[in-house]
Design goal:
- The chain is of the alpha/beta class and 394 residues long.
- It has a single domain (2-377), classed as Rossmann fold (3-Layer(aba) Sandwich), CATH 3.40.50.720.
- It has helices at 11-22, 34-41, 53-64, 78-88, 102-105, 109-133, 180-199, 238-247, 267-279, 299-312, 340-343, 352-365, 367-371, and strands at residues 2-6, 26-31, 69-72, 92-95, 138-144, 159-164, 167-172, 202-208, 210-212, 261-266, 287-292, 295-298.
- The protein has a 7-stranded parallel β-sheet, sandwiched between helices.
- The chain is globular and about 55 Å long.
- The structure holds sulfoquinovose-uridine-C1,5'-diphosphate (USQ).
- Sulfoquinovose-uridine-C1,5'-diphosphate is lined by residues 100-102, 144-146, 208-210, 237-238, 241, 253-255, 260, 262-263, 299, 326, 328, 379.
- Sulfoquinovose-uridine-C1,5'-diphosphate (USQ) binds at residues 100-102, 144-146, 208-210, 237-238, 241, 253-255, 260, 262-263, 299, 326, 328, 379.
Amino acid sequence: MRVLITGVDGYLGWSLSIYLAKHGHQVAGIDNYSRRKWVGEMGCQSAIPIARMDERLITYRQSLGQNLRFFKGDLTDYNFVLNAFKAFRPEAVVYLGEMPSAPYSMIDVHHAVWTQTNNVMGTLVALYVIKETAPDCHLVKLGTMGEYGTPNVDIPEGFFEIDYRGRKDRMMFPRKAGSWYHQSKVHDTHNVEMACRMWGMRSTDIMQGVVYGTRIDEMDDNPSLATRFDFDQCFGTAINRFCAQAVIGLPLTPYGSGKQKRGFLPLRDSMQCLRLAVENPPTAGEYRVFNQFEEVYTVDELADRVAKVGSKFDLDVAVRPMENPRFEEEEHHYNPDHQHLLDLGYQPTHDMETELESVFRDLTRHRGRIESRKEAVFPDIRWDGSRRQSEYLS
Ligand code: USQ
């Protein structure tokens, strides 16, 4: 299948391009290197060194035996996106090209406006371009479990059924996001669902949990095929940040009570699930939702697991809870359904410890790169708009 990945230079995008090529798909990618710039703006760098795109493309051809067709440009630029679609004629688009960080979107008004403009407008452009050039193309759109928030009720996969006076209908399950970033995904969800209803498009909206891990087997230990690994306060996610903190002897930072629950999945499972979505498209006009995560943990449980695995690497890992910089429920009900991918054959890894060992092996090799940016680890971006320093590094 011809699959176009937007955001192909990112953590998930680069991994997916390799994974799909290894599974026989023809892949093209779009990117404008924003992720590299945002992480630089946070005073940080990927813990694992990543190759420049020109080197990535050469290695890709040599290792995977096909050209990754690459289009450099901005996803909110209609003419650029139109030309890329006309040139590649995708049968599926995996839309990953968005600004993915909640804290980054909460820095100030400029970052909030930019996040929503980039994310919502980019998706809107893609919807129009698919309608105009490839109406049968399947849009696999990356949303987030954070769209639902933590309501005091079980979370279904996207919809709930109603039956009013004998007439059945399906309504979008209410969204209750907790950052301008998560809210941008809610807006996308509503736009994509309407496009399917209105124009007969087909789409899978992926409500993904927090992804962790450094690699997938398909990277074959080739450094030029490695994907990025972020640990700064914005682009590092909870487990990945905890591992990086542990490797350089900084305490792990569960926020608040540490009882907040999220769904998590390793990078390799994220790849497996996205492939299942691509290879099993919905029918024309169908908008479907996959809640994509493996297991639910509290932040405290994660810190304990990371500390336990760290001890196998002779690391003395401390856990130091800190005042929560976010507005979020810390003790709450959390029971999201996630049956759709299992029905399609998703086989969860179910072994966080082995996965974390592989992360520690990779990160200890690059300890110096993390150490050199340790100021970027401490979270000083707060949801009330203030920024405060702490004693964390002392
Ligand atoms: N947290 C800590 N300590 C830290 C970092 C995070 O306790 O040092 C807590 C947060 O307060 C939150 C939870 O861990 O309760 C998850 O935070 P996160 O930074 O790992 O994840 P989040 O901001 O929710 O965003 C990440 C990705 C985003 C994706 C989302 C999936 O950056 O792109 O959409 O995970 S989900 O969380 O399911 O919405």
